Write a sequence for this structure.
């Protein structure tokens, strides 16, 4: 072979090597750490469960809580940075995983909320005799999916992350084996969620057919430039994708699964769904609207505004019907309250369609979600304490709680005032003002009026429940007492006997105290949360 031929062959080999090398990319494990740590701990718990005897199963809960704490701490090195991984090596170099301020804020909410849920679950898993290995594996798996979702920047990863967060939740809801309410709740949750996923996948496939890409930024560029013959297909894909996420966020009229699911699920699971499940759904909705479908803002903006008004109205009016004199469930009231809160969370997202800086409008949703997560988990923590003494957990069972346990009554009263937006729950007030501001700035004056009316409606049932906590007197409730557990004040005490102190466990005490301290801290320094509303998160 002649020297020129050898030189040409060598040059071709170098070109081939360079081309092959372009297909290889490094993985930024630091950016992936928050969801990855949760996933690894989930697998470790599943394996550890095989070797532990029943009397040592409680160790799995502490390992899970520790793993979630480590996953949350893994966010700290990423603060102030924009890191990407799993990027295309050619063309647009779009990335499937991005750790930006929006991602980190949602991951903080998800992993922090999952950690509090783990503390809340330590007592419930043992007392309700839930299968420990399965429970902790499912909880960690769902948390890993929810932490992955806000970092997802292509439609395929987004759907996979959403299903990883949702599928374990079905099983968590139905873990009360042999209980009809739990089985029915799991079935209803499963059917509604599967329907939502099917609708969403159909929408995603239409969007892909119209744009030829899955990456959100490429979809945003491709939709306006799509062939005019594919316009109907693209619009249908956008609409179906949004409907799928509306199911996941419990927006009316897709909220019908919420009350029965919360009541039938183990109480820590209901708390988890009300915060982490909602955070996953809303983060996905934000990504597809603001990042992937900005060219359809004129369509999804008004649609989400109407959904926001409908959701908050339906949730608040239904919660208003949960009255103490009719022995309604406290968990059902919290369920309807969470539907109403979903309406408030939708307001800034709808406003992003009209805002010059959509990232700043999204910040209002993040700020409100962080406030809601802290106080709602705290309220469920006190409800878990009451549920240990009175299985029915009715609103009437809280009458005179201040006599039975002043700490629990004061904590729950403070959490309810935060949700209502009344002093001393200053953070609730400021968060609502931030959402209200987003609507006014976007020119959605009618939505701001609807929100103001709904805030007034919510005051009624929040204040009524708060008043019950400090209303003493025997014979208030007729809840079904758990054998061997102390009675609540007025919870069917024979002969109008005085209140018996409520027994806290160490994990429940830590849960209520931790959420109470956080709520007090952000009420005293609301800028810790409200700064997200003044920050461009994209």
């Amino acid at each position: 072979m002649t020297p020129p031929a050898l030189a040409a062959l060598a040059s071709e080999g170098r070109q081939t090597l360079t081309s092959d090398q372009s297909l290889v990319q490094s993985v930024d494990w630091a950016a992936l750490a928050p969801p990855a740590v949760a996933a690894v701990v989930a697998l470790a718990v599943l394996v550890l469960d095989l070797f532990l005897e029943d009397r040592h199963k409680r160790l799995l809960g502490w390992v899970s809580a520790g793993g979630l704490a480590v996953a949350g701490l893994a966010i700290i090195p990423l603060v102030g940075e924009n890191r990407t991984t799993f990027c295309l090596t050619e063309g647009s170099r779009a990335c499937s995983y991005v750790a930006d301020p929006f991602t980190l804020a949602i991951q903080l909410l998800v992993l922090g909320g999952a950690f509090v849920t783990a503390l809340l679950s330590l007592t419930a898993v043992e007392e309700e005799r839930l299968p420990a290995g399965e429970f902790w594996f499912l909880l960690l798996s769902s948390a890993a999916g929810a932490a992955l979702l806000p970092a997802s920047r292509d439609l395929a990863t987004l759907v996979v992350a959403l299903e990883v967060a949702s599928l374990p939740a079905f099983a968590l809801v139905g873990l009360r084996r042999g209980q009809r309410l739990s089985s029915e709740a799991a079935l209803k949750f499963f059917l509604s969620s599967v329907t939502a996923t099917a609708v969403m996948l159909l929408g995603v496939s239409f969007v892909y057919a119209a744009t030829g890409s899955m990456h959100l930024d490429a979809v945003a560029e491709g939709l306006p430039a799509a062939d005019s013959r594919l316009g109907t297909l693209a619009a249908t894909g956008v609409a179906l994708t949004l409907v799928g996420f509306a199911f996941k966020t419990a927006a009316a009229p897709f909220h019908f699964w919420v009350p029965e699911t919360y009541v039938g699920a183990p109480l820590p699971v209901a708390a988890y769904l009300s915060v982490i499940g909602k955070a996953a759904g809303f983060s996905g909705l934000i990504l597809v609207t603001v990042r992937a479908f900005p060219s359809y803002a004129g369509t999804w903006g008004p649609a989400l505004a109407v959904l926001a008004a409908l959701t908050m109205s339906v949730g608040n009016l239904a919660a208003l019907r949960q009255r103490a004199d009719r022995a309604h469930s406290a968990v059902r009231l919290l369920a309807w309250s969470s539907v109403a809160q979903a309406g408030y969370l939708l307001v800034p997202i709808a406003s992003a369609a009209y805002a010059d800086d959509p990232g700043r409008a999204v910040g209002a949703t993040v700020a409100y979600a962080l406030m809601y997560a802290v106080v709602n988990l705290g309220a469920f923590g006190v409800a878990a304490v009451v549920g240990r003494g009175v299985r029915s957990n009715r609103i009437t069972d809280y009458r005179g709680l201040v006599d039975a346990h002043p700490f629990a009554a004061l904590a729950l009263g403070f959490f309810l005032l935060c949700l209502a937006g009344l002093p001393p729950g200053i953070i609730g007030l400021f968060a609502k003002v931030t959402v209200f501001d987003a609507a006014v700035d976007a020119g959605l004056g009618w939505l701001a009026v609807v929100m103001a009316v709904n805030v007034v409606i919510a005051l009624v049932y929040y204040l009524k429940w708060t008043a019950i906590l400090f209303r003493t007197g025997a014979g208030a409730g007729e809840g079904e007492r758990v054998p061997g557990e102390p009675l609540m004040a007025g919870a069917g005490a024979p002969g109008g006997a005085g209140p018996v102190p409520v027994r806290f466990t160490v994990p429940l005490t830590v849960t209520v105290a931790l959420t109470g301290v956080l709520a007090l801290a952000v009420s005293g320094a609301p800028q810790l949360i409200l700064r997200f509303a003044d920050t461009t998160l994209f």
Notes: Confidence is low (pLDDT under 50) at residues 1-23, 474-501. The chain is about 70% helix and 0% strand. Residues 245 and 285 are 6 Å apart (CA to CA).
